[in-house]
Amino acid sequence: MQFFPKLKLIHWLAILSFVVFYLALTLTNLTSLPIFVDEAIYLRWSQIAWKDASWRFISLTDGKQPLYTWAVIPFFKIFDDPLFAGRATSVFFGLFTLLGIGYTGWLLKGKNLAFWSMFAALISPFLFFYNRFAVMEGTLLAFCVWIFAFAILLAKTNRLDVAMILGIVTGLGLLVKSTALFYFLLIPSAYLLVVNWKKILTKDLFRFVGLVLIAWGIAQVIYNIQRLSPWMHVIKDKNAFFIVPYSEIFKDPSRLLNNFLDIWRWHGAYTTLPLLLIGLFGLLSWVKKSPRPAILTASWFFLPLLGTVLLARLFSTRYMSFATPFLELLIGYGFVAVTSHKKRILLALISSLLPLFLIGKLIYDPIHFPYVKVDEGYVNGWSAGNGTKQIAQWAKDRLKANPNIDKLTIYTEGTFGILPHGLELYTQGLPKLEIIGIYPINDIPPAQVIQNARANKETYLILNNTEIEGVPPGLELIASYEKLRVNSMRLYRVVPR
Predict the structure, then answer these.
(1) What is the CB neighbour count within 10 angstroms for residue 142?
(2) % the chain with pLDDT above 70
(3) For residues 150 and 164, what is the distance between their CA atoms, to the nearest angstrom?
(4) Three-class secondary structure of residue 105 per DSSP
(5) How far is CA 228 from the centre of its chain?
(6) Fewer beta carbons within 10 angstroms: which end of the chain, N or C?
């Protein structure tokens, strides 16, 4: 079994071109989209874990696995902007997703599928968005595709070293997000590539089963390092909040129908209809010519999505993004199946126009990108963070310009999320600054804030969710930062009466 393809100079240049184009696209205007609520939370966790080793498992307090928060820490040491550092982490893992798609394509069908699948991944707005977004999905994508690659290698080689590497990769994937469990369970399906239907019970099968058990065991050992923290149990509690109990899966048919339809609505919006049709053509052509790799790839795309449709209590585009690399392989085969070289190039040019337009929109005008309704929170409402960085910079400038200030206190509407975590993220280590989250806010300004303002003139209040008309008595508007439509972020100075 050959582990790597023999590449000519032109192949190396093609791979280099893909890498350069990928980095140029993903790193351009990386922070043009203001920080999102989940980014603020995850990056603040990373910052705390970096500064205090006793909090390395801080993400478990909210039921989130810790690998992404750990992965961001080295990037904090390189880049001053914490949002850029977090998104650069996703860019880094996105590169491994791109290369993993290419490598898997080669394992399944050769260099032709490898390069066309990489092309499909490169022009995918869906992958592009999560490859430059500071959440766990970008990291999860990389591990999912490499679990697939090593599962294929294990089926083809039946080697212990491959099983051990597969176990390590799978274990690390489980440390990113629980969704990786789908692919943990799908590993045995890779044997479909080599099974002899006339004589199934062979030594090779029993050896493969044993190696899969070893891979699973290693993955579980890695996953269970979270038991070093007393909060590992919160993962189960958190999953229970998002997942429907098995006994209730079919109690609400409308939920299942909506989840199923949402998958195709969202893929139509973010993968685009032309590429979806090419993927369907690729699947049908592949099944006709080489059914085993086609069915295997399709199963790794459809089965986890089916599991998500059945189990998801709350559904969004993020919860289905993990299967996208396998769609890119089907799209890649759709290009390969066009036998005429000229027609293939023409199809690639035409089908890439809309995806590249959407990618350009994400780079240069992400606020007005045509998000599906469930994703409008990235640019609108309480979850959008426009104003967070600006207020943090205002606080830095005020303290620098007024060295006689003993303490500048900022009260934020909210105790978890954009406020106060986003503000804390941008002002880490700033002396004389005190940030206090309060929720709920029943009076504006709250009595607690007024009381503090009487003792300290440098007392401020940020409202991000509560909409009010005009400026209430006792407040002086310092700055307001608009979002797409509603819930502007407003900074007030508290002036006690």
Answers:
(1) 26
(2) 100
(3) 10
(4) helix
(5) 25
(6) C
Sequence-distant (6+) residues with CB within 8 A of 28 are 363
Residue 280 within any structural domain of the chain? yes
Domain span at 422: 388-494
Residues 165 and 26 reside in one and the same domain: yes
> Do the strands 408-413 and 475-481 form a parallel or antiparallel pair, or are they unpaired?
unpaired
Q: Which value, in Å, is the radius of gyration of the alpha carbons in the chain?
A: 25
Helix ranges (DSSP H) in 247-380: 253-267, 273-289, 291-311, 324-336, 341-364
**pLDDT tens digits for 239-248?**
888 888 888 8
The two tokens of residue 260 are 């199923």
Cα–Cα distance measured from residue 53 to residue 60, given in angstroms and rounded to the nearest whole number? 14
- Statement: the pTM of the whole predicted model exceeds 0.70: yes
Domain match, 168 and 311 both: yes
Q: Are residues 292 and 437 in the same domain?
A: no
Two tokens at 32?
């043009």
CATH number for 394:
3.40.190
Tokens found for residue 118: 């990489």
Instruction: Answer whether residue 392 shows pLDDT above 90.
Output: yes
pLDDT, mean of residues 388-409: 96
pLDDT at 3: 86
What span, in angstroms and rounded, lies between the C-alpha atoms of 264 and 380? 24
Rounded CA separation 442/377 (Å) = 24
CB neighbours (10 Å) of residue 395? 22
Tens of pLDDT along 349-388? Answer: 999 999 999 999 999 999 999 999 999 999 998 999 999 9
